[in-house]
Automatic annotation (TrEMBL):
Subcellular location: Cell envelope
InterPro entries found in the cross-reference section: Asp_de-COase-like_dom_sf (IPR009010), Mopterin_OxRdtase (IPR006656), Mopterin_OxRdtase_4Fe-4S_dom (IPR006963)
SUPFAM superfamilies, A to Z: ADC-like, Formate dehydrogenase/DMSO reductase, domains 1-3
Lineage top rank: taxon: Bacteria
Organism of derivation: Paracoccus maritimus
Annotated stretches, region: Disordered: 637-656, 903-929
PROSITE patterns from the UniProt entry: 4FE4S_MOW_BIS_MGD
Gene3D superfamilies per record: 2.40.40.20, 3.30.200.210, 3.40.50.740, Dimethylsulfoxide Reductase, domain 2 (3.40.228.10)
Official protein name in the record: Molybdopterin oxidoreductase family protein
Cofactor(s) the protein requires to work: [4Fe-4S] cluster
Keyword Cell membrane among UniProt keywords: no
Length: 929
């Protein structure tokens, strides 16, 4: 009778503004509920092609990003020593004027003195355009320390890779194998996909040293020894070839398996026009691979030549790849490996899918049906971030192709604008000219030694040594080597380091303590070794303190962004799609979107491409650029609502384009026509559709590369052939690792850290509720992950006598940390692990000095170094994959010992001053009445 009245249906919002989430890189659609002009609530957009309404903890917590106490408030100029965090707030006119004052002289004299590197932003087509206009060869984004092995291996092998390049056929796959994927990568789509698989009774096998997240719901978990994934995969290849369970028709039609390789040179046999040749089964004669009516012979005989298929059989049927030979190294019993291979074969061939869908291939042959091998794979950084990662990723793609499970129903499917062969991408450019743009795009795909980024004297043209003999196929650059090389003056000195959203003084660097010293080190004159540092971020991260000039970015709800087909679009396998962000709220601080700040700086400097001939600006801000920039006639950053608003893919700029996107929920979708949605690399209906969309200028059918001929060209150079040859100290390495067929070799740290002294593998992965360090200041997400222990498997736990509440000292050949430990039953027996990016430096992110992230959180980065230990040869060897330069984060070997419990983790890097001070102990606000 006396119960209080409760409003069970309160008003949620005054209006809903639809945009794109930025709490990770999934790019989900969100509905932002507004009350009185403020963000009240965020939910998933059910109409969005990526997440279809599903939203995770990160996405929901986006409201805390726009209210975070750690937000930077105005441009900053350093007034104290570098690293002190002592700044003076200045105006944007002063900030951009100072940047112009610093950058203009080096552009006029030597543009390579600028190193411009960006973190996990999603505007790389734009930032690379800016760097190219400036004229520096020194540009790249975060891929070199994240997953370039996966991306490059996929493109060189089959024209695309996992995640942003493609996805499993979630609706038809019957067996799904997941390698090395942490929960933060593509989390909503993968969770939704796994849900579909489970609902249909499909089987899931997880291959990962750590059983958490996705692997925890797998039907079978293979707790592999870190760094041995490639060996396991090649053993599966051995079993399948031994049993004859490979798709011979698929291999003959769509891959280089029937191409003829010269026994002496290792290069493909070509006709006078450069076309690769096969033997036609019907005639027994040499024919171009793409000639109409040709039936390539996988087992052809031609004097002095063998087919790729014959080379593969010769290699992978050797006993060294048998399960019995690899089991101990991989940590997986031989019968289990054979059982997995048998299951793959059974599902692929006994449970094949047939669709009654006609299609025509690039040879002009009509097929009445589409045959699917319903075995799908997915992999990410776990197999990529090793010094053998490129060849491991290649091995996985070769396994897919041998099964005939790429671009078929039930297998792996490309997302537009992929597939694209490596030859369709630009080659890297590095020619600098004072006061002029660079001679072409910075990043790309090399096809032989002639494409390396070398100066006339053979020295590296880039500060990170990308595209050199040290790492020839470094398609994403080596961001983790920029600071180390700039500090060492190797290959040369720079003047200005310009970075965006790259927390290089903390969780984004190996050798964290060493990097801090490099950023603050002075020469004999007392001048900083790296003279100037410009940095842009939205928050007071650890890196801000090391900048001389800070350009404050907006939060993602306050900005324009373009998730473009020119960059990292939101496409699905059945559709081309892109999206925008737009300011659903206006900033309450003196901040600007970084891309807008770059445009305004370019206008001040009158950079070519950004200004008209009379020096007047082409674009005032990033929104203006998104709408009106054309990369080539009719093709701009956004594919939707072009021209009169109804044109798709190609069309003149439409001044109402952004409004049309906003009205449509912040995204645009163009579905692939029925019959064009499979066999994309060879399906002429897809090729023609892609040309109409502006993805290609002309059809580009191609063969998958089981054998990567450009790698053989580098081997030949190391053997003494050609005009451009490697230095002597790199010849053996190139001969070994640049094998055109996938190989496995032990991670490099296995050879540096004595396995007797350092018997344990140590890994990090990011949790589903965090992404990089973006959630560091988020009040909701901190409640999920405010501290991190070192997780230890049962064998190590018992042998060291650990108990709940204990601490341990973990040591590598590079350093040591003292941290809390916890038991984890789902681990490879020789592996320990922890969450990444939870630990914070005292004073950063507006956190209290006693915040758990700073006292009970820690980084494994202190144990890792960007350089390998000295070999006694006077060389600086990067701790990277020698093919792509990918940072070898996961090669780490350690030892562990029990320690008395501590109040705080070690090392303690000391507290830093914060330009935004400390946040309140309790964060409260009320939205609306």
């Amino acid at each position: 009778m006396n119960q209080p009245w409760i409003d069970t249906s309160p008003k949620v919002s005054d209006e809903i503004r639809k945009t794109t989430c930025y709490m990770c890189a999934c790019r989900c659609g969100i509905n932002v509920h507004m009350k009185e002009g403020r963000v009240a609530y965020i939910e998933g957009n059910r109409d969005h092609p990526v997440n279809k309404g599903v939203l995770c903890a990160k996405g929901s917590a986006g409201i805390m990003q726009v209210n975070a106490p750690a937000r930077l408030r105005a441009p900053l100029r350093r007034v104290g020593p570098r690293g002190s965090g002592e700044f003076k707030e200045i105006s944007w006119d002063e900030a951009l004027g100072l940047a112009r004052e610093w950058l203009t002289p080096i552009r006029k004299s030597d543009p390579s003195k600028l190193a411009f590197f960006t973190g996990r932003d999603q505007s790389q087509s734009f930032t690379s355009f800016w760097a190219q206009a400036f004229g520096t060869p020194n540009y790249a984004a975060h891929g070199g320390f994240c997953s370039v092995n996966m991306a490059a291996a996929g493109i060189y092998t089959m024209g695309g890779a996992f995640w942003e390049f493609g996805q499993p056929d979630w609706d038809r796959a019957k067996l799904f194998m997941l390698f090395g994927v942490a929960e933060d990568h593509d989390s909503n789509p993968i969770k939704m996909g796994i849900g579909k698989l489970k609902a249909r009774g499909a089987r899931i096998i997880g291959v990962n040293p750590i059983r958490s997240g996705y692997n925890a719901v797998a039907d079978e978990w293979l707790g592999i020894t870190p760094g041995t994934d490639g060996l396991l995969i090649l053993s599966l290849v051995h079993c399948l070839m031994e049993a004859g369970k490979i798709d011979l028709d698929y291999l003959a039609r769509y891959t280089d398996a029937p191409l003829l390789v010269d026994d002496e040179t290792g290069l493909f046999l070509r006709d006078d026009g450069g076309k690769t040749l096969v033997i036609d089964r019907a005639t027994g004669h040499l024919r171009p691979f793409d000639e109409k009516g040709v039936r390539p012979d996988l087992n052809a005989s031609h004097p002095g030549h063998r087919t790729v298929m014959q080379l593969m059989a010769e290699r992978y049927l050797k006993p060294e790849y048998a399960p019995e030979a690899v089991a101990d190294r991989c940590g997986i019993a031989a019968p289990r490996i054979r059982a997995v291979a048998a299951e793959i074969a059974r599902v692929a061939f006994d449970e094949a899918i047939t669709l009654d869908q006609a299609w025509t291939d690039f040879r002009g042959e009509r097929h009445e049906k589409m045959t699917g091998r319903p075995v799908a794979f997915h992999a990410m950084r776990g197999i990529s971030a090793h010094s053998n990662g490129f060849q491991t990723c290649r091995a996985l793609h070769v396994l897919q192709i041998l099964l005939g499970s790429v671009e078929v129903p039930g297998g792996f499917r490309f997302k537009p604008p992929y597939p694209k062969p490596a030859t369709a991408h630009p080659k890297p450019h590095c020619k600098t000219t004072p006061d002029m743009p660079l001679d072409g795009p910075h990043l790309g795909f090399v096809h032989g030694p002639e494409d390396l980024a070398l100066k006339a004297d053979g020295s590296p043209a880039r500060i990170d040594k990308a595209f050199t003999w040290e790492n020839p196929m470094s398609a994403h650059g080596l961001m983790h080597m920029v600071i180390s090389n700039a500090h060492a003056g190797d290959p040369y000195r720079i003047d200005t380091l310009f970075m965006y959203m790259a927390n290089m003084s903390w969780n984004s660097s190996m050798n964290t303590g060493g990097v801090m010293k490099m950023l603050t080190d002075t020469d004999e004159n007392g001048d900083y070794v790296i003279p100037r540092i410009i940095y842009s971020d939205a928050y007071s991260s650890e890196m801000v303190a090391y900048a001389d000039l800070v350009l404050p970015d907006t939060t993602y709800l306050e900005r324009h962004d373009c998730i473009s087909l020119l960059d990292r679009p939101i496409c699905e396998a059945d559709a081309a799609a892109d999206a925008i962000r737009w300011p659903v709220v206006e900033p309450d601080r003196d901040v600007r979107g970084f891309q807008t700040a770059l445009i305004q700086l370019a206008n001040l400097m009158e950079l070519p491409g950004f200004v008209h001939e009379d020096g007047s600006p082409k674009w005032q801000d990033y929104a203006d650029y998104i709408v009106n920039h054309e990369r080539k006639p009719g093709v701009g950053p956004l594919a939707g609502f072009r021209g009169d608003g109804e044109q798709v893919g190609r069309g003149t700029p439409n001044p109402d384009q952004l409004k049309r996107y906003i009205d449509n929920g912040g995204f645009f979708v163009s579905h692939i026509p029925e019959g064009a949605d499979f066999y994309k690399p060879w399906n002429m209906a897809y090729q023609d559709w892609a040309v109409g969309m502006g993805l290609y200028d002309a059809p580009q059918p191609y063969l998958f590369n089981l054998y990567v001929e450009p790698m053989r060209k580098f081997q030949r150079a190391a053997e003494g052939h050609g005009d451009r040859q490697p230095p002597d100290h790199l010849r053996d390495q190139i001969r070994k690792v640049m094998d055109p067929l996938p190989i496995w070799y032990a991670p490099f740290e296995d050879g540096h850290a004595d396995p007797e002294e350092y018997p344990i593998h140590a890994l990090t992965q990011r949790p589903m509720a965090m992404y990089h360090s973006w959630g560091s200041q988020n009040a909701w997400l901190r409640q999920i992950h405010g501290r991190n222990p070192m997780y230890v498997p049962r064998e190590i736990w018992d042998s060291h006598g650990f108990a709940d509440g204990d601490w341990a000292r973990v040591s590598s050949i590079h350093g040591a940390i003292t941290v809390p430990v916890a038991l984890h039953a789902g681990l490879n027996g020789s592996t320990i692990w922890t969450w990444n990016a939870i630990g914070k430096r005292k004073g950063a992110w507006a956190l209290d000095k006693d915040a758990p992230e700073a006292t009970k959180g820690f980084l494994l980065n202190h144990l890792i170094h960007e350089l390998q230990p000295p070999r006694g040869d006077g060389m600086r060897w990067s701790n990277s994959d020698p093919i792509t330069g990918q940072a070898a984060w996961f090669d780490l070997r350690v030892k562990i010992e029990k320690m008395p419990a501590q109040h705080e983790t070690d090392p303690d890097m000391g507290a830093m001053a914060s330009p935004v001070g400390r946040g309140p102990r309790n964060l409260r606000w009320k939205v609306g009445k």
